[in-house]
Specification:
Layout (H helix, E strand, L loop, with lengths): L16 H10 L2 E4 L7 E4 L2 H9 L4 E2 L29 H10 L4 H6 L1 H16 L3 E3 H6 L1 H11 L3 H15 L9 H22 L5 H7 L1 E2 L2 E2 L2 H32 L1 H9 L1 H16 L4 E6 L3 E3 L2 E3 L4 E5 H4 L34 H18 L4 E2 L4 E2 L8 E3 L1 E3 L10
Parallel strand pairs: 2-10
Antiparallel strand pairs: 1-2, 3-7, 4-14, 5-6, 7-10, 8-9, 11-14, 12-13
GO molecular function: cholest-4-en-3-one 26-monooxygenase activity; heme binding; iron ion binding; steroid hydroxylase activity
Family: Belongs to the cytochrome P450 family.
Keywords: Heme, Iron, Metal-binding, Monooxygenase, Oxidoreductase
C-alpha cells in the first residue's frame, strides 16, 4: 500500500480510507516522509488520537497545528500566535475571552435566527430547481452566522468565506503565494473592522473582543487580527463541509436518506452525529512532542511532529461497531470530528444548530435531489469537503422569512 497523506490527490474524493485502513491495521503510528521537511508521525487509531489530543503536557500545539514548520514569513506576526497554536494556560486565557459566546445556552438563543436564515438560503434557490449546493446552500449558513456574530454585513461574510477556501487549498494546487495573499486580505478587512468597532462599538463579538482584557491588558492589533482570522476560518469549516459531504453521502446511500426523511425531527440528532463521524471535515491536527514518549509501540523523540488523523480515528473498528458502514441510527456515537481535550471545537454547539436547521430545510423542501455532475473536492490535505457539487431538484415555492 502506497501511503501519501500529503498529496492533495490522495484526498481528491474525500478521505483516503484505504490508506487509513492499512495504517490502522499495520502501522498505526507511522513515520511519514515529508518532501522539503523533516517528516512526521501519522497517528490513525482512535485511542492514540484521543490520547495525543488530550495530552497537551506531552504533545504541544506550539509552534503550529499544521504539518509544515512555520515559514520565515510567519515572522511578520512577531511574537503573536493564533489561539489554536497555544497550550494551557495561555490557550485557556484566550479561550475564556470568547467562550461565553459559544456555550450551549447562548447558542440556543440564536436558534430561531439560524432557522430563519436556513429558510432564506433555501428560498434563494428553491424556484430554480438547480444550484451549486456548496456555494449557494452549504457555504451560506456559516458565512451568515459568523458575519452576524462579528457585526458584519452578510455579503461580507460570503466574500470572507471565499478567502478561507483559498487558505485551505494546497499551495501546489493554486497560484504561488495565493494562500498568503488571502491571509493578508483577511487582515486588511480585519484592520478596517477594528477601526470601525473602536470608533463605534456595537453589540457584537468584534466589539467585545476589542474591549476585553487578557492578563490585565487589551488585545493588541495583531492579537485581534489572529482572533478574527480564526473565527472566520474555523467558523465555516465544519458546517459547510458537513452539509455538502453529508448530502453527498446520503445520495450514495438512498436507503439511509429515506430512513431519515421518514421522521426528520426525531431522527435528525443521531443522523447528524453519524454524518459528522462519516465525513470528519477537519482531516488532521499536528502536535509537537515536548519530551520523549512512547505511542503505539513507537518511540517519539522530543521535537517530533505527531499528526492526528481524525477521519481514520472515526473509522476505527476497535471503537465503532460496523465502522465502515453509514448508520444514521447509530447510538452512543463518540466520534471526535470536533476533536477533544483542551482544543475541542469551541463552536460545536452553534455548528450543530446550523447543521440541523439546514438539513431540515434541505431535506423537507428540496425534493428529488440528484447530482448533475460528480462533486469536485477541495484540493486540500487539511480540510475535507466538496468545492463544488451541482445538483437539481424539484422546483418549489418560497416560504419567506417571518
Amino acid at each position: 500500500m502506497k501511503i501519501d497523506l500529503l498529496a492533495p490527490a490522495s484526498f481528491a474524493a474525500g478521505h483516503p480510507l484505504a490508506q487509513y485502513d492499512w495504517l490502522r491495521e499495520n502501522d498505526p503510528v507511522h513515520w511519514h516522509e515529508e518532501p522539503g521537511g523533516r517528516g512526521f508521525w501519522a497517528v490513525t487509531r482512535y485511542a492514540d488520537v484521543r490520547a495525543v489530543d488530550r495530552g497537551f503536557e506531552t504533545y504541544s500545539s506550539e509552534p503550529t497545528i499544521m504539518i509544515p514548520d512555520p515559514a520565515e514569513e510567519s515572522a511578520a506576526f512577531g511574537p503573536y500566535k493564533m489561539m489554536l497554536m497555544m497550550d494551557p494556560p495561555d490557550h485557556t486565557g484566550f479561550r475564556k475571552l470568547i467562550r461565553s459566546e459559544f456555550t450551549l445556552p447562548t447558542a440556543k438563543m440564536r436558534e430561531a435566527r439560524i432557522q430563519a436564515l436556513a429558510r432564506q438560503i433555501v428560498d434563494a434557490v428553491i424556484e430554480k430547481g438547480e444550484c451549486d449546493f456548496v456555494a449557494e446552500v452549504a457555504g451560506e449558513m456559516p458565512s451568515y452566522v459568523i458575519a452576524e456574530l462579528l457585526g458584519l454585513p452578510l455579503e461580507d461574510g460570503r466574500e470572507l468565506y471565499k478567502l478561507t477556501e483559498v487558505i485551505h487549498t494546497a499551495p501546489e494546487a493554486q497560484a504561488p503565494g495565493a494562500g498568503a495573499q488571502a491571509v493578508m486580505k483577511m487582515f486588511e478587512y480585519g484592520s478596517k473592522l477594528m477601526a470601525e468597532k473602536r470608533a463605534r462599538p456595537g453589540d457584537d463579538l468584534a466589539s467585545r473582543l476589542l474591549a476585553c482584557e487578557v492578563d490585565g491588558r487589551r488585545l493588541e492589533d495583531m492579537e485581534f487580527l489572529l482572533f478574527f482570522l480564526l473565527l472566520i476560518d474555523a467558523g465555516g469549516d465544519t458546517t459547510r463541509n458537513l452539509l455538502a459531504s453529508g448530502l453527498n453521502a446520503m445520495l450514495d446511500h438512498p436507503d439511509q436518506l429515506a430512513w431519515l426523511k421518514a421522521d426528520l425531527p426525531g431522527r435528525l440528532p443521531a443522523a447528524r452525529e453519524e454524518l459528522l463521524r462519516w465525513t470528519t471535515p477537519v482531516i488532521y491536527m499536528r502536535r509537537t512532542a515536548r519530551a520523549d514518549a512512547e505511542l503505539g509501540g513507537k518511540t517519539i523523540r522530543k521535537g517530533d511532529k505527531v499528526v492526528m488523523y481524525f477521519g481514520a480515528a472515526n473509522r476505527d473498528p476497535a471503537r465503532f461497531d460496523r465502522a465502515a458502514q453509514l448508520d444514521l441510527a447509530r447510538a452512543q456515537n463518540a466520534h471526535i470530528a470536533f476533536g477533544n481535550g483542551p482544543h475541542v471545537c469551541l463552536g460545536q454547539h452553534i455548528a450543530r444548530i446550523e447543521i440541523d436547521a439546514m438539513l431540515v430545510e434541505v431535506l423537507s423542501r428540496m425534493e428529488e435531489v440528484e447530482r448533475t455532475a460528480p462533486p469536485e473536492w477541495l484540493a486540500s490535505n487539511f480540510i475535507s469537503g466538496p468545492r463544488t457539487m451541482p445538483v437539481r431538484f424539484r422546483a418549489g415555492r418560497r416560504v419567506g422569512v417571518e
